[in-house]
């Protein structure tokens, strides 16, 4: 656990404007943030430049999505090269809202992961089961299959963070218990050990997402295989600072 730097991502989703995000950025810039935690804020694409220009350099910026090729006739899409050009270092790929609201397939997500990594973007790769899948007892099957497609498209795991986000816990106020989160993270690490390598299993950060708050973050952060968080709604509030400092 000590070898893996704690990682907290804030996914702003489709929220905010220059005024409200500017206030949030001011709060983050002046906050005391734990030195041993890597912090990344994922801004809407139209605000990537704004976020990077105004956020303190100790906080990295991510895009929330990118396409699988560098340029072309793909109206409404953005490429990793464009994201890099705005000064951002990361991209979130495979988020459940991309999978289930916009119908992105495992195959497309895998292609996006490969292209982002080829263009030196760090990837926060999301996986997670829906409520009916958990209730049917197929959680492992679902997340292993999603991870398999990601793994097939990764050459260097040094630039990848794996985010486990049970879909039933995103924005619902329901959080996986620390024990539920630890159980899946532990199994994912075992899958990486069996299917990728010991080194990757030991070094890759597996973060948790799904209604993380200032109130529950410390107990979640105390779990041995929980290496950080991908935070939705709470990342737009001052309590995001408490979540960043969950290991402080």
TrEMBL record:
Domain of life: Eukaryota
InterPro entries: Aldolase_TIM, TIM_sf, TrioseP_Isoase_bac/euk, Triosephosphate_isomerase, Triosephosphate_isomerase_AS
NCBIfam families hit by this protein: tim
Biological processes per GO annotation: gluconeogenesis; glyceraldehyde-3-phosphate biosynthetic process; glycerol catabolic process; glycolytic process
Gene3D superfamilies xref list: Aldolase class I
Keyword match tRNA processing: no
Pathway participation: Carbohydrate biosynthesis; gluconeogenesis; Carbohydrate degradation; glycolysis; D-glyceraldehyde 3-phosphate from glycerone phosphate: step 1/1
Keyword vocabulary terms for this entry: Gluconeogenesis, Glycolysis, Isomerase, Lyase
Assembly notes: Homodimer.
Reactions listed under catalytic activity: dihydroxyacetone phosphate = methylglyoxal + phosphate; D-glyceraldehyde 3-phosphate = dihydroxyacetone phosphate
GO cellular component: cytosol
One Pfam family named in its UniProt record: TIM
Record-stated family: Belongs to the triosephosphate isomerase family.
GO molecular function annotations of the record: methylglyoxal synthase activity; triose-phosphate isomerase activity
Function: It is also responsible for the non-negligible production of methylglyoxal a reactive cytotoxic side-product that modifies and can alter proteins, DNA and lipids. Triosephosphate isomerase is an extremely efficient metabolic enzyme that catalyzes the interconversion between dihydroxyacetone phosphate (DHAP) and D-glyceraldehyde-3-phosphate (G3P) in glycolysis and gluconeogenesis.
The protein's name: Triosephosphate isomerase
Enzyme Commission number(s) of this protein: 5.3.1.1
């Amino acid at each position: 656990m000590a070898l893996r730097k704690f990682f907290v991502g804030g996914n702003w989703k489709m929220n905010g404007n220059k005024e409200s995000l500017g206030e949030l950025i001011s709060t983050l810039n002046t906050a005391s943030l734990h030195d041993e935690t890597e912090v990344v804020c994922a801004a809407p694409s139209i605000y990537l430049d704004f976020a990077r220009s105004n956020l303190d350099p100790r906080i990295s910026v991510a895009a929330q999505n990118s396409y699988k090729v560098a340029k072309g006739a793909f109206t409404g899409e953005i490429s990793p090269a464009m994201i890099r050009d705005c000064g951002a270092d990361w991209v979130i790929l495979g988020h459940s809202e991309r999978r289930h609201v916009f119908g992105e397939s495992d195959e497309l997500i895998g292609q996006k992961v490969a292209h982002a990594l080829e263009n030196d973007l760090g990837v926060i790769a999301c996986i997670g089961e829906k409520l009916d899948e958990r209730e049917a007892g197929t959680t492992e099957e679902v997340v292993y299959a999603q991870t398999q497609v990601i793994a097939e498209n990764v050459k260097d795991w040094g630039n990848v963070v794996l985010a486990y986000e049970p879909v039933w816990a995103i924005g619902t106020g329901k959080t996986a218990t620390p024990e539920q989160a630890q159980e899946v993270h532990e199994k994912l690490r075992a899958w990486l050990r069996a299917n990728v390598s010991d080194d990757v299993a030991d070094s890759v950060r597996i973060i948790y997402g799904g209604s993380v708050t200032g109130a529950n973050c410390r107990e979640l952060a105390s779990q041995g295989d929980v290496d950080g968080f991908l935070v939705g709604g709470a990342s737009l509030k001052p309590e995001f600072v408490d979540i960043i400092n969950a290991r402080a």
